[in-house]
Q: What sequence folds into this?
């Protein structure tokens, strides 16, 4: 199979959200901390009728219907998620309800978990399958689904929720350059979920920021090395049109891109312009560790990378800023934003993605885009996803109502023997919702 990659995509996020400006005031944080400091506008969250399973049922059904894919045509289904509902039974098995109905139970794949990286692991599994000798000619389907919630405190505004589905196959408009991948994996306690009775992570915020940037540097180094070996010339930011980052909050994405520019400067100063050379010069002798702590470097590199950021990154930031951190779906929601904003200009362009999952696992990889053919064309993908429509039809909850929802969800997490309000009035038609968890912890869903 040639040009294996993503043929079709769809995204779902809850219609319920809270404004960061309102949350900031409610939390007693200084004005601008969440909006300018973190760079976030809005945060989506699941109410008691939605969870990672309902969101993934919704997005998979929607993708199959909108692109007219016969469920029998799916040969592999992989889910990436870090939201634990069951320690044994995979989310994939819940999704099998859709396929069993059509008589298709011959579907490989289960769930992949490591913080925000599981979706990338799932995607690589599907791409590798289509490229392998065990491929049976059918499509792969990848689902990234997460509800990111934090305990009260500084991390709470960096939550979010969404599910994304991606159809994988040959001759894709979004093709993998499979040889161009750089990974960095190591053992760190930056963000983890050791308390199985709680949905909330244990997080060392500052450490997680540094780990993210260190992993980015390392992946970029390996990526550039492989590019040079393969292409025979040095890689620099000018060799890709867009850069897409895992987006816990927008400020970290800004810092990440400026860090790549600093890397370019260190490797080959002639690849950056004169102003950048002059402003970054004083920092060229810092050790790695010093460079992560230097506020002056952060400021200088953000300043000199601003025009490039506006061109190469800004178009990817819409959904992460509006919805928040969607964990496994976060990187792909940034990519969806790019398709939404630029679908008519992407043909022939290279796009670099950086996936990060705490703990930690990270990969930088490369996609090559072409217009594709209906229904698997960039323009049709943009139309089907209807990002503007979905953002516009949301309902803003006041912070008090958001906090009350979080409290209720704390009680519901891991609980049995309850029925939900079954109130689906805010959900759009076709959305799945949770109706009941019975005395055996079995979960029941209905479709609006
Ligand atoms: N106006 C403008 N900016 C402000 C204001 C204000 N009133 N107040 C603060 N800021 C700025 C700060 O200067 C800082 O920006 P800087 O880093 O450019 O200096 C930013 O807002 C955040 O303020 P901090 O004091 O650093 O925030 P705090 O430490 O309270 O929390 C954190 C931020 C650590 C990101 C927290 O939200 C968190 O732990 N989140 C979860 C972990 C996370 O997302 N990690 C990222 C990678 S791992 C993953 O994906 C889960």
A:
């Amino acid at each position: 199979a040639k040009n294996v990659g993503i043929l079709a995509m769809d995204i779902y996020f809850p219609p319920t959200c809270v404004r960061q400006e309102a949350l900031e005031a409610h939390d007693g944080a200084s004005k601008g901390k969440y909006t300018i400091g973190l760079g976030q506008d809005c945060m989506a969250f699941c109410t008691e009728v939605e969870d990672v399973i309902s969101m993934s049922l919704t997005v998979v059904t929607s993708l199959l219907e909108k692109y007219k894919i016969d469920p029998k045509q799916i040969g592999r289904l992989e889910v990436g998620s870090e939201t634990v509902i069951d320690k044994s039974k995979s989310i994939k098995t819940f999704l099998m309800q859709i396929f069993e109905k059509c008589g298709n139970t011959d579907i490989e794949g289960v769930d992949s978990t490591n913080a925000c990286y599981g979706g990338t692991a799932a995607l690589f599994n599907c791409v590798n399958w289509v490229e392998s000798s065990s491929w049976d000619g059918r499509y792969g389907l990848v689902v990234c689904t997460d509800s990111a919630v934090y305990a009260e405190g500084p991390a709470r505004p960096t939550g979010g929720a969404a599910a994304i589905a991606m159809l994988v196959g040959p001759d894709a408009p979004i093709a993998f350059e499979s040889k161009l991948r750089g990974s960095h994996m190591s053992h760190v306690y930056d963000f983890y979920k050791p308390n199985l009775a709680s949905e909330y992570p244990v997080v060392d915020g500052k450490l997680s920021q540094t780990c993210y940037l260190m992993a980015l540097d390392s992946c970029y180094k390996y990526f550039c090395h492989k590019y040079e070996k393969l292409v025979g010339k040095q890689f620099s930011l000018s060799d890709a049109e867009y850069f897409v980052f895992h987006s816990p909050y927008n400020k970290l994405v800004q810092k990440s891109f400026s860090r790549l520019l600093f890397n370019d400067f260190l490797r080959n100063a002639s690849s950056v312009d004169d102003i950048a050379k002059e402003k970054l010069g004083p920092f060229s002798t810092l050790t790695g560790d010093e460079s992560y702590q230097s506020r002056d470097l952060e400021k200088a590199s953000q300043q000199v990378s601003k025009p490039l950021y506006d061109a190469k990154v800004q178009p990817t930031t819409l959904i992460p800023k509006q919805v928040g951190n969607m964990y496994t779906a976060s990187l792909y929601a940034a990519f969806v934003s790019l398709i939404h904003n630029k679908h008519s200009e992407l043909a022939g362009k290279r796009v670099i993605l950086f996936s990060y999952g705490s703990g930690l696992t990270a990969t930088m990889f490369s996609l090559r885009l072409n217009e594709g053919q209906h229904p698997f064309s960039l323009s049709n993908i943009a139309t089907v996803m209807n990002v503007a429509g979905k953002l516009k039809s949301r309902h803003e909850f006041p912070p008090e109502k958001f906090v009350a929802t979080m409290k209720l969800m704390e009680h519901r997490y891991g609980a049995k023997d309850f029925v939900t309000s079954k109130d689906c009035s805010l959900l759009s038609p076709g959305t799945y919702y949770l109706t009941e968890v019975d005395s055996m912890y079995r979960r029941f869903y209905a479709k609006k």
Observations:
- The mean pLDDT is 97.
